């Protein structure tokens, strides 16, 4: 898929914003910069973040039975979740205070005070990290800060919405589905979503 990077309306045409808030954040230069970041890589053969966002938005449309409010929340989470990957600190050991999810949360705090949106944006990769943590624990190496027991108390109040986003985000590109299947098996209280057709 080609995207004319010099075309001011390219992102809007591809992402089709639906609310005034979506239209507003798509105009912010630091946000727009993140949409055009990325090269094809494992998990993201689509390359640029904007194409991944489009895939997640398409998945949201396949979920049956969500409310208008949930759909708007999921769309806002989707637009912001990976938009600050370009600004993430990738040094080792990792500085989690500069993770793209936290950077995206700080950005969104200027535009919304919805705690579910902000918390899910910040922790959207933590279910994947929890899967890795559990997998690595089998071999004696664990990171308690990124475990499921650390994540669940944080998101319990918005658990189903978190799960819906995790499903829509994971079922894109060529991402492994093992973390999603593990999450669905391991987390009590989520309702598997009825999907009109297979997402992935």
Model description:
The protein is an all-alpha fold. The protein has one domain. The protein has eleven helices and no strands. The chain is globular, with a radius of gyration of 16 Å. The two termini are 19 Å apart.
Number of helices: 11
Mean pLDDT: 89
Helix content: 40-55%
Q: Determine Rg (CA atoms, Å).
A: 16 Å
User: What shape does the CA trace take?
Assistant: globular
Key structural traits:
200 residues; 11 helices; mainly alpha
What is the compact description of this entry?
The protein has 200 residues and is mainly α.
Write the layout of secondary structure elements.
Layout: H1 10-15, H2 20-25, H3 29-35, H4 49-61, H5 68-81, H6 100-108, H7 115-123, H8 126-137, H9 148-155, H10 159-170, H11 178-186
